[in-house]
Amino acid sequence: MNASDATRPVLRPYLPATAGFAAGKDSPREFLERCLVALEAWEPRIGAFVTLNLPEARASADRSTARWRAGNPLSPIDGMPLGIKDIIETIDMPTQNGSPLFAGFRSERDAASVAALREAGGVIVGKTVTTEFAATEPRGTRNPWDPSRTPGGSSSGSAAAVGAGVIPVGLGTQVIGSTLRPASFCGCYGFKPTVGALNRGGSYDGLSQSATGMIAASLPEAWQVAYEIVKRTGGDPGFPGLYGPATPPAPARPRQLALLETDGWADASPGARKALDDALARLTQAGIAIATRYDHADIAAAETAIHGARELSFDINAWESRWPINTYSARDASKLSKAMRDRLVQAEAMTVEDYRGMLTERQRRRCVYDALAPEFDACITLAATGAAPVGLHSTGNPVFVVPASMLGIPAISLPVLADGGLPLGLQLMGFADRDAALFSCAGGVLALLK
Amino acid sequence: MNASDATRPVLRPYLPATAGFAAGKDSPREFLERCLVALEAWEPRIGAFVTLNLPEARASADRSTARWRAGNPLSPIDGMPLGIKDIIETIDMPTQNGSPLFAGFRSERDAASVAALREAGGVIVGKTVTTEFAATEPRGTRNPWDPSRTPGGSSSGSAAAVGAGVIPVGLGTQVIGSTLRPASFCGCYGFKPTVGALNRGGSYDGLSQSATGMIAASLPEAWQVAYEIVKRTGGDPGFPGLYGPATPPAPARPRQLALLETDGWADASPGARKALDDALARLTQAGIAIATRYDHADIAAAETAIHGARELSFDINAWESRWPINTYSARDASKLSKAMRDRLVQAEAMTVEDYRGMLTERQRRRCVYDALAPEFDACITLAATGAAPVGLHSTGNPVFVVPASMLGIPAISLPVLADGGLPLGLQLMGFADRDAALFSCAGGVLALLK
Predict the structure, then answer these.
(1) CB–CB of A331 and B109 under 8 A?
(2) Statement: residue A317 has pLDDT above 90
(3) Measured between alpha carbons, how far is A186 from A144 in angstroms, rounded to an integer?
(4) Inter-chain CB proximity B91 and A327 less than 8 Å
(5) B242 vs B236: CA distance, rounded Å
(6) A3-233 sits in which CATH class?
(7) pLDDT at B270 over 90
(8) Of the given ranges (A3-12, A238-247, A291-300), which has the lowest mean pLDDT?
(9) What is the rounded distance in angstroms from the CA atom of residue B87 to the CA atom of residue B156?
(10) Quick check: B4 pLDDT over 70?
(11) Which letter does DSSP use for residue A146 in this model?
(12) Beta strands A289-291 and A189-192: pairing type?
């Protein structure tokens, strides 16, 4: 079957192919061309990209091909085609932030993550669609599994492109649920690192619980791309950056997991509940202990601590978004969505003292959650309340993924569940700065469930 | 004497004038026009501004005048003419970062601090000269006290403009010594807040020990401008923001000060040493206890902790500057100074593990310094090794002010000393998040020495 005939998405991992590159049986340029065939087939249906730079992508892939042939690749991801969420700056393409206020805007530089990925030999194919300023207002991207459905957001384009098999990895960001939710809806692997773990320089998301994340065709690729970024540019200034090995952490079957229902359980679809219950049954059968709020006091305390995570996170984000929304509003309020204007009104009713109180409350909740670390390998829950909802007017419910954002912890979504024949993610939540341990655990769970 | 005849700088405070505004005897527009007369006289000699927007400044002053007349000023600084360091974004003027790479660059928005100041009624007169990317390469600004001398840097233009009496307050930033050193050299008040205390959104200084600061014609104005910023936009995301009252903290005579020689004492000029010794004698005479490394073990430990502050800070900054310098270098390395290219070479020899080690070391040093907080109201030392040096090729020695940057603590420079008939700052260093207490202490010291 020619890729252009594809009607079902097929994840297109890059990393296993590199053995072929070294042997000369395949090359980054050939890999890219296969991606571009998929792009041609899928892009009209899903609208994942806002800008493409194919001449530069091809030239970059050719340079990578030459390096692999010479036996001198710059990194394991040398030649990997990548999509960059359009709130992250690129020197060769505009950064439009999903906003008409930034139509055609050029920052004249690469973001830290993009510069690092280019140094590692990454092939930047294009800028992927984001909701308005990575917040709520969708920009028309469709889900490759069903174009009548949302791909999720705010990293809509990266998830749709990876989910359709157009690219192996797309950069996203997450402050509420913007990496794991679209990964869940589009059948991709999603990784939101510990807050501060990857340098956000040049990304228009300075919020205190936001993190650059990966939407990927495989778990190892999510790790490797993150690693290549931190190796070259560190974490956010003042943060230690992602801890972990130069190659993907080896899968390790967890001993004990904590099930978190979160505020989401009440909203979960019957299919999603059954999918999670079935997965938990298989894990239990494999000898993994699963504890819950009903039999463990620390888990009950953690459930209480993450209750209302969405509301607290929205409030924190509102204050932290007062700027720059106020300057955008002053420039041309008619070019802001109603959701964005409403957020500004909310922010302008807040005081810095209100904000301090919220930071203190967030920190208190983080400490309660951290008490689970000595006993559990990770927490487990859904990544979404069900399959992607029908309609493009909303990017769906983030209730299951916002706790990890509020807590600043690493989280991974594995595309191993289904709801009504559509993808649904299984979420594993780790502990701050222990991203590598979470990858090992996720790999162990994946081996049992895939 | 007409201001245009001025040959000696005269600080031009704004705040005491507001009584005249309310009474209709003076107005923000008239105040601005007096500033513009000074600008016309001084600017050809000092080159403090890189961009001016006088039509907008006049319109803004007129709106302020109307508000004062109606009895509805937006804040105590409504109508205050301000200069904005040219690494801080302004919607109506380019942000050129002291670099030919950013010639004419427009970010299409106001920085958080600028948006807040406009909301408070501040009148933005223009963008003040910065060294290249707020680092070391000077851009020709001259010292109003002696045009053959540097005004200091990197906030060169803000200090020169305030020192000449052109504007009452200019925004600066400091990651090594970029606010207090030029304040010292130009005879201004300088305030570098606790790290994170003022929102740096839209300022091209994301370094972990950098802070937005004030160079001011008076101590109360430095406080008030900082307060009006934090009230409206908070601190950096995730930080509690500047703590303190809505009006300048009342001066309070300190009980006990810790003298810190720092690495700078060995480099201080005879005149600077004598100026400090004389000031200390007057403070002692007034009943303030001054302890030193020679009679207090905690001070000796703090001296050891700040030894090498410059080297550690340069190394931390180098890693944190790897991006964006690498992307600027990729764009056109010929437009970077040799100092900037050298910094990139240094950064590229570092690893994220090196950086983690430096962060740990910095934190250790901060804890040692913090041990002084229970016993001392503040630490006291020089703000510079002497008067501004002759020549425009260097912005002078930051050795006395870099410890406060490394420690992340608030620091104030008072223009109460002299060296060879030229200004020299007396520095007070406080404790993290206790900026208001430092202001009270500085006010008490000022009352004794001015």
Answers:
(1) yes
(2) yes
(3) 7
(4) yes
(5) 10
(6) alpha beta
(7) yes
(8) A3-12
(9) 12
(10) no
(11) B
(12) unpaired
Instruction: Give the mutation candidate from A352, A354, A435 for the B interface (greatest B CB count, under 10 A).
Output: A352
Q: Tell me the HSE value of B104 on the side-chain side, using a 13 A CA sphere.
A: 1
pLDDT of A403 > 90? The answer is yes
C-alpha span between A334 and A134 (Å, rounded): 18
d(CA B405, CA B308): 12
- Residue A52 C-beta-side C-alpha neighbours within 13 Å: 15
Which of A232, A237, A356 shows the shortest C-beta gap to B207? A237
What is residue B2's predicted lDDT score, i.e. its pLDDT? 41
SS3 B120: coil
Query: B91 near A331, Cβ under 8 Å?
Result: yes
The tokens for A306 are 């993450």
User: Does residue B218 surpass a pLDDT of 80?
Assistant: yes
Please name the amino acid found at residue B379.
Answer: C
Handedness of CA B426, B432, B434, B435 (dihedral sign): positive
Say yes or no to pLDDT of A2 above 50: no
**Residue B27 class from Cβ within 10 Å (0-12 exposed, 13-18 middle, 19+ buried)?**
buried
Tell me the pTM: 0.96
CB pairs under 8 A, 24+ apart, for B298-302? B298/B371, B298/B372, B298/B375, B299/B258, B299/B259, B299/B260, B299/B372, B301/B368, B301/B371, B302/B258, B302/B260, B302/B368, B302/B369, B302/B371, B302/B372, B302/B379
pLDDT value of position A5? 45
Nearest to B233 among A237, A323, A359 (CB): A323
**Facing B320 at nearest CB: one of A237, A240, A322:** A237
Residues of B in contact with A233 (CB under 8 A): 322-323
Task: Say how far residue A340 (Cα) sits from the centre of its chain.
Answer: 22
CA distance A407 to chain B (A): 13
Tell me the CA end-to-end span of chain A in Å, nearest whole number.
24
pLDDT digits (tens, 9 = 90+) for B123-141: 999 999 999 999 999 999 9
Spatial neighbors of B84 by CB under 8 A, at least 6 apart, are: B90, B111, B114, B124, B126, B127, B128, B158, B170, B171
User: For chain B, which residues lie within 8 Å of any Cβ of chain A, measuring from their own Cβ?
Assistant: 91, 101-102, 105, 108-112, 115-116, 119, 199, 201-202, 206-209, 230-235, 237-238, 240-241, 319-320, 322-324, 326-328, 330-331, 351-352, 355-356, 359
Q: What are the phi and psi torsion angles at B303 (to 5°)? A: -60, -40
A4 C-beta neighbours (distance < 10 Å), count: 11
Task: Give the Å distances, CA to CA, from B324 to B172, B317, B340.
Answer: 20, 12, 11
Domain boundaries, given as residue ranges, for chain B: 3-233, 256-309+366-414+430-449
Query: If you compute the radius of gyration of chain B from its CA atoms, what whole number of angstroms results?
Result: 20
Torsion from C-alpha of A276, A279, A280, A283, nearest 10 degrees: -160
Q: What is the mean pLDDT of residues B79-96?
A: 97
Tokens of B131: 């060294």
> B58 CA to chain A: closest CA distance, Å?
19
Per-residue pLDDT tens over the stretch B156-210: 999 999 999 999 999 999 999 999 999 999 999 999 999 999 999 999 989 999 9
- pLDDT at position B18, please? 75
| pLDDT band at residue A312 using 50, 70 and 90 as cut-offs | very high
Q: What are phi and psi of A280, to 5 degrees?
A: -65, -40
Q: How far apart are the CA of B349 and the nearest CA of chain A, in angstroms?
A: 11
Average pLDDT for residues A238-267, to the nearest whole number?
98
